[in-house]
Amino acid sequence: MSHHRDLLSPLRAAVDDYEMIRDGDRVAVGVSGGKDSVALLTLLAQLRRFYPARFSLTAITLDPSFDGEEDYTALAALCERLEVPYVVKRTQLWETVRHEENPCSLCARMRRGTLHRVALEEGCNVVALGHHQDDAAETLLMNLLSGATCECFSPKSYLDRRGITLIRPLIYIKEAELTAFVRREGLPTVKSQCPMDGCTARQDTKELIATLSKTYGDVNHKLTAALKKGHISGW
After folding, report:
1. Cβ(61)–Cβ(89) below 8 Å
2. What's the pTM?
3. Tally of structural domains, the chain
4. In 3-state terms, what secondary structure has residue 113?
């Protein structure tokens, strides 16, 4: 349990700083099967036990059907242990995007839309996503270098059209900390079958940050601190 507390503290700080969860919220957690989403679900299930604002959780997995139907029994068992209802939505995402010139961005957009729709169908008004500090730093740098814009995803944002609030409770936590947490707790993960996995612009940015950090120290932390100081993108 002490290990949970190590990460519960920065998770709770993010939830408090941005008022991510209010009394009576019904929170859908997007669980892809990757380490970040599995850690997020586990930590929110712990937070639910003592957080002053009462909230419920539902875990939602979208199966993109890369190579037939994926097996999510290990995730279902985790949800049962955490006492969180679990919904698996089978989709034809990969079939739809596979011949596109830029399948990743279309896939991400369609996945988001489907997740929001399923969350609403399940009666949820908040969707929690597993983006961590490294993701935020990489997104800022990618936007600067490729789009010449100084912006990032927001810790919390409200989607008018859907009536859903998006929250990212892991933004103060490093990817390495989540990896260690998942390994230490023996949490199940489901390897992505995506053929594009690991060969993306994000991977290049991750390597660039690692190189810069050798000279400048913790670049991930510095980039996210800059987001906060400049109140960029709602930080």
Report:
1. yes
2. 0.94
3. 1
4. helix
